[in-house]
């Protein structure tokens, strides 16, 4: 089992070295008083290393908030987030940034790349910001893996949407992170290009043993994952192991969009 | 980091052009001011008269406040020549290496053209109209002038002319010539013609030589010299010689108790000693370039900061991405600062050439107006450029730093969402900072009412800056208030596009604030620069107009000889003929606890000007509007003081006030009266005779005359036209005075002449102010263009949802109008408050003067500039296909 969804009292986790990220009783509310909106309600979950997990849910179910909290982009209102041994919710922003660039890779839906840098420069950006030189052999391998060896010196404007997403994946891999988060990585792509990107992510997990968490609302995209977690109204409401796209779509139709949540 | 900054700058050329332009023009302005300042500090005019004397000993024209170092810039420049004790000549002669030391007397002397009665000024040139000087023959060697024809002047009625003057006057050896000097014009005989080596005459002055005794008489000799020229033994080292002379004069070179000390100069410095006007010009250059350079930097800081703020706003997604995947807040800050530095360095280097051009142009303008002597060349050294580039890079860094602070607060999750709505709240810190700066600015304003004269005038523009800064910090609040106030009527007037404009303004208070700020700056600075001088001039003009009651004013091309007043006084039908001379005094006082030394304007007036016993009766020609004491007590050892000056230096009636006369002589007169009209006539009033021997030029500036009303009335009893006949006779007598080059003006003519000289100051301010305003206009347009272009996507979206091109334009017009009107009001209030406060300091009355046309023109200019800078780029943006624009990558 690669995913544990824990509904019991917090603080009772065994120490598990093979857990990549762990959320304990995480609640995230936006706003204050009467107008406050709970995007996540007491979520506890642990994701194992080397797994490809898709997080699904209707709009407003809290998928993005889940990812922001799990990736140290945002701080939970209560509860704790552990990346390996490190408690993220206690870290200050510069430390969080360092942690993100060393141990977490990101692939966003669009606008993944700095337009002023070449593909290769974009890939090595985290290393440069950390003040480290890129591991040349690894860079070559990563570029080869995403099939961009001959496009390394192109700027984003000269690349197609799919190529840009592959550059983003290369960048996410360059630091050999504990975890790669992909936020609707195929959302801005056509079906065929999207499939190539998903296959690439799948390979990253299978060949390199990388952990990938993907937030999506597309059942086909989710079907590439080992597990699918379903979120509704700020809570995990179910999971599927190695599902087919049809199974997922079936599940999704049962999930009512929440009334009070707006897309976060 | 530098590579990242470099590639960002390279690929985002468009955005950085705005910052580059702002920094480039800042460099040009600051470096040009720097060149003018260096010129003021170092440039000199080569000596002419003293060219043959390698070392010149003259009075030190600088006075410093006690307890300040000689290097301190806090010094006052004495307006009249400091004379040198004649006894020093012998002491200097004894110094080793001195071949001879020759004392020099200088006095105005002009050839009167036979027949026309015109007087000849100096040689043809920009700045020599007044320069025709008489000297003693003994000092001809200082140039050196050598005889080319005839003989040296031996008798009292002999004169020697330089060859250029002789040619202009058509005179040769043996001819008779009338010369107007310090007394009535009198005949001389040309005994010889001289010429300097390599020419017929000097370029800035004509020279006339008299027999030594006659020269002494004409100079109204006080036994003192204007300067002592030192001729060196062949082969003597000038530096060492100068040191030995300083040693020999020990105790007098440093400032002494009775007056300023001596200056022993060599090289070009001799020109400064020779031409006192050069020192004035230098001082003016230093003052002007200093204050305007500073303001230019502050403006640059503003404009660049707002440009970078816009850039950061445009790039917020990119920055969010950087924050998400790699960069700490600190790294983002550093990156933006590096970018700014990169742009600033390039702008600084590119700006060097234009800066020299601008400085040269300003110099040319000054020379054309006779403010700078023609021979006053620019000194272009590396220092102004180094300073300007350093200042601009620093400014760019500071500006970027403020923008970067905001950038580093961009949260990384912004990289994921589409949201481009700005946060609703305005940071509490920003409001607090705004209020603090506002309070600081207002208290600076209040303090500034304690300052007088030059100090107050110099402060003017710099006081505007804190107020504009406060407005910038509070600009979202201002925008919100303005939208609330103007939004209701606007929505009623225009229900579709006006509604959109108000909605935009309301939702984007911060953005609207950013657009308001540069316009507020333009309005505020322009208002103060343009109308500060107008306020001062108007007040002075009023006072002079109200206080002057002379029927005729006699002025002269080169001044009015001292006995003219007596001669006029003896004409039947003249009640009063009072001589007036304008000069300055230097007073040391404590200003805000600091020892300060400042030059004030002063006049020497024959006491008859104030009527019998200073009663201001029918014979009076000048009414100073005495508030305390009485001008009837004005005599030797006393002084009357204008109220503003009295408040500044702490003068009180009945007390002694230590001060230095124009030539540095320390006196301690008793204050007998305090009067209101100091601006119109002068801050200090002495009797004319109290200033004898303390003036460079012993001539009077004017004689104020009043008809004898009683005599006219008696005559009128017999014949109604007799009064006119009486004044007609006086006028005829005035025209027949035995002096050349005099003009008789009535009050109107005098007012016109007076405002012509006053407007020169105004012009200098306008010129430099105009350059500064041009810079601000460019910067404002620049930031508005950047701001508007950044809205391309928003406008494209409007088009796509069914808004016509015309409607978008109209919406932008409403929005622009809302913005511009708000800016004009806020800027106007800032300028108004500043002008009121300055008016209190400068004129004692809280009513500034804004010429109606000037005011309207300024408001119109700001509105036009603002609207054009918003609407032109809007048009350009609308020309593109909206679907292309909306899909445009950020």
Automatic annotation (TrEMBL), chain B:
<feature type="transmembrane region" description="Helical">
    <location>
        <begin position="382"/>
        <end position="404"/>
    </location>
</feature>
<feature type="transmembrane region" description="Helical">
    <location>
        <begin position="463"/>
        <end position="490"/>
    </location>
</feature>
<dbReference type="InterPro" id="IPR003838">
    <property type="entry name" value="ABC3_permease_C"/>
</dbReference>
<feature type="transmembrane region" description="Helical">
    <location>
        <begin position="762"/>
        <end position="785"/>
    </location>
</feature>
<keyword id="KW-0472">Membrane</keyword>
<keyword id="KW-1133">Transmembrane helix</keyword>
<keyword id="KW-1003">Cell membrane</keyword>
<feature type="transmembrane region" description="Helical">
    <location>
        <begin position="340"/>
        <end position="362"/>
    </location>
</feature>
<dbReference type="GO" id="GO:0022857">
    <property type="term" value="F:transmembrane transporter activity"/>
</dbReference>
<dbReference type="Pfam" id="PF02687">
    <property type="entry name" value="FtsX"/>
</dbReference>
<feature type="domain" description="ABC3 transporter permease C-terminal">
    <location>
        <begin position="291"/>
        <end position="411"/>
    </location>
</feature>
<feature type="transmembrane region" description="Helical">
    <location>
        <begin position="511"/>
        <end position="531"/>
    </location>
</feature>
<dbReference type="InterPro" id="IPR050250">
    <property type="entry name" value="Macrolide_Exporter_MacB"/>
</dbReference>
<feature type="transmembrane region" description="Helical">
    <location>
        <begin position="431"/>
        <end position="451"/>
    </location>
</feature>
<protein>
    <submittedName>
        <fullName>FtsX-like permease family protein</fullName>
    </submittedName>
</protein>
<feature type="transmembrane region" description="Helical">
    <location>
        <begin position="284"/>
        <end position="312"/>
    </location>
</feature>
<keyword id="KW-0812">Transmembrane</keyword>
<feature type="transmembrane region" description="Helical">
    <location>
        <begin position="852"/>
        <end position="872"/>
    </location>
</feature>
<comment type="similarity">
    <text>Belongs to the ABC-4 integral membrane protein family.</text>
</comment>
<feature type="domain" description="ABC3 transporter permease C-terminal">
    <location>
        <begin position="768"/>
        <end position="882"/>
    </location>
</feature>
<feature type="transmembrane region" description="Helical">
    <location>
        <begin position="816"/>
        <end position="840"/>
    </location>
</feature>
<dbReference type="GO" id="GO:0005886">
    <property type="term" value="C:plasma membrane"/>
</dbReference>
């Amino acid at each position: 089992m690669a995913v544990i969804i824990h509904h019991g009292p917090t603080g009772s986790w065994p120490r598990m070295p093979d857990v990549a990220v762990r959320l304990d009783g995480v609640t995230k509310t936006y706003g204050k008083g009467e107008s406050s909106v709970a995007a996540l309600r007491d979520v506890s979950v642990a994701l194992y290393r080397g797994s490809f997990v898709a997080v699904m849910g209707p709009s407003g179910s809290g998928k993005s908030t889940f990812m922001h909290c799990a990736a140290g982009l945002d701080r939970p209102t209560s509860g704790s987030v552990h990346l390996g041994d490190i408690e993220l919710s206690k870290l200050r922003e510069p430390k969080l940034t360092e942690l993100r660039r060393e141990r977490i890779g990101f692939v966003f839906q669009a606008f993944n790349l700095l337009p002023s840098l070449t593909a290769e420069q974009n890939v090595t950006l985290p290393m440069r910001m950390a003040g480290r030189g890129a591991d040349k052999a690894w860079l070559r391998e990563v570029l080869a893996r995403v099939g961009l060896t001959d496009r390394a010196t192109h700027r984003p404007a000269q690349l197609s949407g799919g190529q840009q997403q592959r550059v983003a994946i290369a960048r996410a891999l360059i630091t050999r992170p504990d975890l790669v988060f992909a936020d609707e990585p195929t959302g801005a792509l056509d079906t065929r290009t999207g499939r190539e990107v998903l296959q690439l992510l799948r390979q990253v997990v299978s060949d390199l043993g990388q952990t990938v968490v993907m937030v999506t609302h597309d059942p086909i995209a989710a079907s590439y994952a080992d597990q699918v977690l379903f979120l509704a109204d700020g809570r995990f409401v179910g999971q599927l192991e190695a599902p087919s796209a049809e199974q997922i779509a079936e599940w999704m139709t049962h999930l009512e969009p929440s009334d009070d949540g707006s897309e976060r | 980091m530098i590579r990242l900054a470099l590639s960002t700058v390279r690929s985002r050329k468009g955005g950085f052009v705005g910052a580059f332009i702002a920094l480039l023009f800042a460099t040009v302005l600051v470096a040009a001011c720097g060149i003018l300042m260096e010129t003021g500090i170092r440039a000199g005019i080569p000596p002419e008269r003293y060219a043959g004397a390698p070392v010149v000993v003259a009075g030190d024209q600088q006075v410093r406040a006690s307890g300040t170092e000689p290097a301190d810039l806090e010094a006052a420049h004495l307006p009249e020549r400091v004379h040198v004790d004649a006894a020093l000549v012998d002491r200097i002669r004894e110094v080793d290496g001195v071949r001879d030391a020759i004392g020099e007397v200088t006095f105005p002397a002009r050839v009167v053209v036979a027949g026309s009665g015109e007087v000849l000024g100096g040689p043809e040139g920009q700045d020599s109209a007044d320069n025709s000087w008489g000297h003693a023959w003994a000092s001809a060697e200082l140039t050196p002038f050598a005889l080319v024809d005839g003989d040296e002047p031996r008798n009292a009625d002999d004169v020697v002319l330089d060859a250029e003057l002789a040619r202009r006057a058509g005179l040769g050896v043996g001819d008779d010539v009338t010369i107007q000097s310090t007394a009535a014009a009198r005949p001389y005989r040309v005994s010889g013609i001289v010429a300097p080596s390599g020419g017929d005459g000097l370029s800035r002055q004509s020279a006339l030589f008299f027999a030594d005794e006659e020269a002494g008489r004409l100079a109204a000799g006080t036994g003192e010299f204007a300067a002592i020229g030192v001729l060196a033994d062949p082969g003597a080292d000038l530096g060492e010689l100068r040191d030995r002379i300083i040693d020999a004069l020990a105790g007098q070179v440093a400032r002494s108790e009775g007056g300023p000390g001596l200056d022993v100069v060599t090289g070009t410095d001799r020109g400064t000693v020779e031409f006192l006007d050069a020192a004035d010009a230098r001082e003016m250059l230093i003052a002007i370039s200093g204050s305007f350079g500073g303001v230019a930097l502050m403006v640059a800081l503003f404009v660049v900061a707002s440009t970078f703020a816009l850039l950061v706003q445009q790039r917020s997604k990119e920055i969010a991405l950087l924050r998400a995947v790699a960069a700490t807040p600190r790294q983002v800050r550093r990156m933006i600062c590096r970018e700014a530095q990169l742009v600033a360095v390039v702008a600084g280097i590119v700006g060097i050439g234009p800066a020299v051009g601008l400085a040269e142009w300003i110099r040319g303008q000054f020379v054309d107006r006779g403010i700078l002597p023609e021979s006053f060349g620019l000194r272009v050294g590396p220092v102004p450029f180094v300073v300007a580039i350093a200042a601009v890079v620093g400014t760019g860094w500071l500006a970027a730093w403020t923008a970067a602070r905001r950038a580093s607060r961009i949260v990384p999750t912004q990289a994921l969402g589409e949201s481009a709505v700005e946060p609703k709240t305005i940071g509490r810190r920003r409001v607090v900072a705004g209020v603090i700066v506002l309070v600081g600015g207002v208290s600076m304003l209040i303090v500034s009412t304690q300052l007088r004269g030059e100090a107050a005038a110099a402060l003017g523009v710099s006081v505007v800056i804190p107020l504009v800064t406060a407005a910038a910090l509070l600009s979202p609040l201002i925008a919100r208030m303005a939208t609330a106030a103007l939004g209701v009527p606007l929505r009623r007037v225009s229900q579709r596009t006006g509604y959109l404009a108000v909605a935009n303004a309301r939702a984007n208070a911060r953005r609207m604030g950013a657009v308001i700020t540069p316009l507020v700056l333009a309005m505020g600075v322009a208002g103060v620069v343009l109308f500060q001088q107008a306020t001062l001039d108007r007040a002075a003009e009023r006072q002079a107009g109200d206080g002057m009651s002379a029927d005729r004013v006699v002025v002269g091309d080169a001044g009015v000889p001292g006995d003219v007043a007596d001669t006029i006084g003896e004409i039947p039908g003249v009640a009063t003929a009072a001589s007036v001379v304008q000069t300055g005094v230097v007073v040391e006082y404590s200003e805000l606890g600091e020892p300060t030394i400042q030059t004030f304007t002063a006049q020497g007036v024959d006491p008859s000007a104030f009527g019998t016993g200073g009663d201001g009766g029918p014979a009076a020609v000048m009414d100073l509007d005495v508030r305390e004491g009485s001008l009837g007590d004005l005599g030797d050892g006393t002084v009357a003081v204008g109220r503003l000056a009295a408040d500044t230096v702490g003068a009180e009636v009945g007390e002694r006030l230590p001060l230095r006369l124009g030539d540095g002589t320390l006196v301690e007169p008793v204050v007998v009266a305090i009067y209101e009209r100091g601006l119109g006539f002068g801050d200090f009033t002495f009797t004319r005779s109290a200033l004898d021997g303390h003036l460079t030029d012993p001539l009077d500036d004017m004689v104020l005359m009043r008809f004898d009303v009683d005599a006219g009335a008696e005559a009128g009893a017999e014949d109604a036209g007799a009064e006119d006949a009486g004044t007609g006779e006086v006028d005829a007598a005035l025209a027949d005075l035995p002096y050349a080059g005099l003009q008789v003006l009535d009050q109107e003519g005098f007012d016109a002449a007076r405002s012509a000289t006053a407007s020169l100051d105004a012009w200098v301010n306008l010129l430099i102010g105009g350059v500064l305003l041009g810079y601000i206009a460019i910067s404002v347009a620049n930031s508005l263009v950047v701001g508007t272009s950044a809205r391309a996507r928003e406008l494209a979206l409007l088009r796509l949802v069914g808004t016509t091109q015309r409607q978008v334009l109209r919406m932008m017009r409403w929005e622009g109008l809302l913005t511009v009107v708000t800016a004009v009001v806020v800027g106007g209030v800032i300028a108004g408050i500043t002008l009121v406060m300055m008016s209190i300091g400068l004129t004692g009355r809280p009513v500034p003067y804004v010429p109606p046309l000037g005011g309207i023109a300024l408001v119109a200019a700001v509105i036009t500039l603002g609207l054009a800078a918003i609407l032109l780029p809007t048009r350009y943006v609308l020309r593109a296909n909206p679907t292309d624009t909306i899909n445009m990558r950020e």
